């Protein structure tokens, strides 16, 4: 699905072959060579906008993609013991990366995770899935979470992000 909203086309006599697109707030800026015909220009605009939309979709997976990923992680690392009722992005979590409600099986991930490496998002998903089995952060909880091979790496990544953003850490633990 191509991006919607205002599209600004910038033509350059110095640009010879490349056509690129990027976001600038609510508008999309398309940069292209000045010598293209109107038909070529429209073809290129359509192509780069579709490419931009695909790239953004990969970087910002939908709630449905998160849900499928959570089910896959449960199968791979938790022997399929849990199946969340829902998994979704939320914009109102600023001091934690994720949360879950074991009573109804819902998992929420902070929108601040969007754009972070997939292995970091996977760790947070697995962390929250594990809370559906073990509510606290005791030894049984960490034994399950540590089945994920990138746990320590992801925790270090999140600690670094939290430290640079000034987010609180609980007892030396990354906020999840």
Describe what you observe in this structure:
There is one protein chain. α2 crosses α3. The chain has helices at 38-59, 63-77, 118-131, 139-145, 151-165, and strands at 7-12, 20-24, 27-33, 86-90, 98-101, 106-110. The protein folds into 2 domains: 7-59, no CATH class; 63-165, Metalloproteases ("zincins"), catalytic domain (Zincin-like). The chain has 5 helices and 6 strands. The strands form 2 sheets. The chain has a 3-stranded mixed β-sheet with strand order 1-3-2, with helices on one face. It has a 3-stranded mixed β-sheet with strand order 4-6-5. The chain is elongated, with a radius of gyration of 21 Å. The chain starts with 6 loop residues before the first strand and ends in an 11-residue tail after the last helix. The model has no long low-confidence stretch (mean pLDDT 88). It is an alpha/beta fold. Residues 1-24 are annotated as: Disordered. Residues 38-158 form the YgjP-like metallopeptidase domain. This is YgjP-like metallopeptidase domain-containing protein. It comes from Actinoallomurus bryophytorum.
Task: Note the topology.
Blueprint: E1 7-12, E2 20-24, E3 27-33, H1 38-59, H2 63-77, E4 86-90, E5 98-101, E6 106-110, H3 118-131, H4 139-145, H5 151-165
Parallel strand pairs: 1-3, 4-6
Antiparallel strand pairs: 2-3, 5-6
Helix pairs in contact: 2-3, 3-5
């Amino acid at each position: 699905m191509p991006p919607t909203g205002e599209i600004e086309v910038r033509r350059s006599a110095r640009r010879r072959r490349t056509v690129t697109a990027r976001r600038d707030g609510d508008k999309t800026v398309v940069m292209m060579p000045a010598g293209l015909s109107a038909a070529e220009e429209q073809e290129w605009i359509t192509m780069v906008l579709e490419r931009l939309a695909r790239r953004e979709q990969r970087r910002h997976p939908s709630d449905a993609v998160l849900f499928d990923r959570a089910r896959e992680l449960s199968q791979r690392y938790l022997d399929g013991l849990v199946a969340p009722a829902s998994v979704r992005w939320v914009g109102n979590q600023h001091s934690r990366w994720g949360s879950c409600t074991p009573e109804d099986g819902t998992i929420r991930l902070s929108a601040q995770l969007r754009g972070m490496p997939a292995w970091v998002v996977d760790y947070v998903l697995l962390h929250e899935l594990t809370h559906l089995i073990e509510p606290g952060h005791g030894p049984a909880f960490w034994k399950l979470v540590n089945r994920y091979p990138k746990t320590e790496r992801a925790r270090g990544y999140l600690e670094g992000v939290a430290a640079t953003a000034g987010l609180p850490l609980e007892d030396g633990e990354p906020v999840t």
